[in-house]
Amino acid sequence: MQLALFLIFGGLAIAGAINLLLQKHPINSALSLVVVMMSLAVLYWSLGAEFLAAAQVIVYSGAIMVLFVFVIMLLNAGEEEHTHGSRAAYIAGFPGAAAIFCVLSFVFLTESKHLGSANLGGQLSQASNNIAEISSVLFTKLLLPFEVTSILILVAILGAVVLARKEQ
Amino acid sequence: MSAQVPIAYYLILAAILFSTGVAAFLIKRNIITIFMSIELMLNAVNLTFVAFAHMWHQVQGQIFVFFVMVVAAAEAAVGLAIIIAIFRSRQTLNVDQINLLKN
């Protein structure tokens, strides 16, 4: 079950990411990013993070990607055109990304014996369920960072309004 | 009953997503698509956090992902507002033509 979920939705996530890279029109890239986020939500759920799976669907693919699609439609973004800068980007981009992938996967594969494996569902240490554990830690030990994020969101809202306002 | 999946596979998947995000960040010329590839990289890092949280049977990794999501939401709001402001003044979304600091 775990393996089947991992293979199906991991493959879907990789296909969406590659499609984001290959599509020329930004709206196609945005929709393939939604596919990536939904399949990551299923992977979070299979790793025992039910709250994060729900938050991924609601916050990322529900709020952030809708904002992206709104902006794409508002600015009437068309297909990207190729300039002389894009050739240099191809020359630097693919080898750089391949080098990062090689380094990361080398580290992960050499350490894979110590990492163990994943079962379906949560295995938290002393919790009855995932949301109870998250909320008990978030509202006791990490209360100050949690409150600071609310101030961050408030500042971000004000900044977005000020930046996107029409100038007189 | 159920076949187990090594944690390393999840990390490899996250590495694939992250390097695809890096490639898209470097190759794409549209500023909105570049911004979306940043979101893809953030998601890849979140997957490693959740996988390690599962590995250690701890919830702190999941809380870190929660904070990353909050910061990503704030960053998307501000970044898209900046993109709208750029488009209003320069009438383009191509990053090669946004070169005011170069001249």
Q: Any descriptors?
A:
heterodimer, A: 168 residues, mainly alpha, 2 domains, 7 helices, B: 103 residues
Structural overview:
The complex is a heterodimer of chains A (168) and B (103). Chain A has helices at residues 2-22, 26-46, 50-74, 84-110, 112-115, 130-138, 143-164, and one strand at residues 117-118. Chain A is mainly α and 168 residues long. In chain A, helix 1 (2-22) packs antiparallel against helix 2 and helix 2 (26-46) packs antiparallel against helix 3 (50-74). The longest helix of chain A is centred in the middle third of the chain and has 27 residues, at 84-110. Chain A is globular, with a radius of gyration of 20 Å. Chain B has three helices and one strand. Chain B has helices at 7-27, 31-56, 60-90, and one strand at residues 5-6. In chain B, helix 1 runs antiparallel to helix 2 and helix 2 packs antiparallel against helix 3. The model of chain B has no long low-confidence stretch (mean pLDDT 89). The interface between A and B is large, with 92 and 74 residues. Strand 1 of chain A pairs antiparallel with strand 1 (5-6) of chain B, so a sheet runs across the interface.
Proper CATH architecture of chain B: Orthogonal Bundle
pLDDT below 50 for ≥5 consecutive residues: which ranges of chain A?
none
Helix share, percent of chain B: over 70%
Tally of contiguous helical segments of chain B = 3
CATH class group of the largest domain in chain A:
Mainly Alpha
Number of domains of chain B: 1
Mean pLDDT of chain A, to the nearest integer, reads: 86
Residues in β-strands, percent of chain A = under 5%
Number of strands of chain A: 1
Percent of residues in β-strands of chain B: under 5%
